[in-house]
Amino acid sequence: MDTNTLKQILLEEMQGYAGEGLNAYSYLTENEAEQLYTVVDIATVKDKRLVSTVLIARLVDNRVVIELDYNNKELVDALKARGVPEDQIILAYRGEPVPT
Questions:
Q1: Digits of tens for pLDDT over the chain (100 positions)?
Q2: Domain residue spans in the chain?
Q3: Positive or negative, the Cα torsion across 12, 13, 14, 15?
Q4: What's the CATH fold of domain 3-18+26-94?
């Protein structure tokens, strides 16, 4: 799969993790220069603000490198469902090697 299509699918799927939740809002953030994308949660629980990064992915050498994924529905499954080949997905958070 070419890089532009891979990026489009990645961003569309990551957008699905963003939005309003119970006492929280999740934001998709993008650093285009580094091709780094994150989903950040900002929540209020018992009048206390909680902020956490729940998903980090980036594009490296025409592959999606998933650095972090704390979601019940993992990004890797969403990408595969959209036709991204397994050999273009690196699960760094599971210890798979990342090209330098």
A1: 999 999 999 999 999 999 998 888 999 999 999 999 999 999 998 899 999 999 999 999 999 999 999 999 999 999 999 999 999 999 999 999 998 7
A2: 3-18+26-94
A3: positive
A4: TATA-Binding Protein (3.30.310)
